UniProtKB/TrEMBL annotation:
Enzyme kind, highest EC tier: transferase
Matches recorded under Pfam families: Formyl_trans_N (PF00551)
Annotated gene: purN
Entries under InterPro entries matching the protein: Formyl_transf_N, Formyl_transf_N_sf, GART
Organism from which the protein derives: Helicobacter bilis
Documented EC number(s): 2.1.2.2
Metabolic or biological pathway, per its Swiss-Prot or TrEMBL entry: Purine metabolism; IMP biosynthesis via de novo pathway; N(2)-formyl-N(1)-(5-phospho-D-ribosyl)glycinamide from N(1)-(5-phospho-D-ribosyl)glycinamide (10-formyl THF route): step 1/1
The name this protein goes by in its record: Phosphoribosylglycinamide formyltransferase
GO cellular component terms, semicolon-separated: cytosol
Binding positions for (6R)-10-formyltetrahydrofolate per the UniProt entry: R113, M142, R143, I144, L145, N160
Length: 246
């Protein structure tokens, strides 16, 4: 990785998480983005540096001793190369254009998983050859990436955000399932993508305490509010501390 961390964001729908990632990370150095996203450096070790769980709704504290020396010395710029969607009608594409970012549509309607993965891989590897590619962020991306695709890109960090406190409620409708279950909490988790659905190593996650008689709509909004904060922080934690999937 040189002086730039090049990122592609995959999205299928509305694009609110995508837009938040762009506003939080794009065209900022690692240290600039950390400050903007409430990540305070301390020289004192904390258990939060060693575990994925984050419980504070305010500042995220990261031990400066765990940050790679090369990351502090180079302080690379984060650059969103492209917003890619499998849905030509995704509102996320309009958001991306408004933000001045390149977009690419790889329509999935007439493709099976292997065909789609092949087309997506072709596009991503072309970006990698031309610019270098360091990270792929899934932000409301509704397709499951196959094992062969992931094997071909295993040298690139691929992250996903899931609206539950994993390993609870993997797959679709995580918010609704969390809202309806007997636990007194829901949650948000950011994890590496692996061939097992929503099962990769967790980078950060946070519980969201339920409020008695709260509507699903209000609970959903609180989940989204945590998503907008946690996803940029997880990205920055992964790169600042050199965390890779295992």
């Amino acid at each position: 990785m040189g002086q730039t961390i090049n990122v592609v964001i995959l999205v299928s729908g509305n694009g609110t998480n995508m837009e938040n990632l762009v506003l939080s990370l794009h065209n900022k150095t690692i240290t600039q983005a950390m400050r903007q996203n409430g990540m305070n450096l301390t020289k004192n070790s904390t258990t939060r540096d060693k575990a994925p769980l984050q419980t504070s709704p305010n500042a995220f504290i990261i031990n400066s001793e765990t940050i790679q020396d090369s990351m502090l010395a180079k302080d690379p710029l984060i650059n969103v190369l492209s917003i890619v969607s499998d849905n030509k009608d995704a509102h996320a594409l309009h958001r991306a254009k408004r933000l001045g970012l390149p977009t690419q549509i790889i329509d999935s309607t007439d493709k099976n998983r292997q065909e789609f993965d092949k087309a997506l891989l072709l596009y991503l590897t072309s970006l990698e050859r031309e610019y270098g590619l360091n990270c792929i962020l899934l932000a409301g991306f509704m397709r499951i990436l196959g094992a062969e695709f992931l094997e071909r890109l295993k040298h690139i960090r691929i992250l996903n955000i899931h609206p539950s406190f994993l390993p609870l409620h993997k797959g679709l409708n995580g918010i609704e399932k969390s809202y309806a279950d007997s636990n007194d909490f829901g949650g948000v988790s950011v994890h590496f993508v692996t061939k097992e659905l929503d099962s990769g190593m967790i980078i950060l996650q946070e519980k969201i305490q339920k409020i008695p008689n709260e509507s699903l709509e209000d609970f959903t909004q609180r989940v989204h509010d945590v998503e907008y904060r946690l996803y940029p922080q997880a990205f920055l934690k992964a790169f600042a501390q050199g965390i890779h999937n295992v």
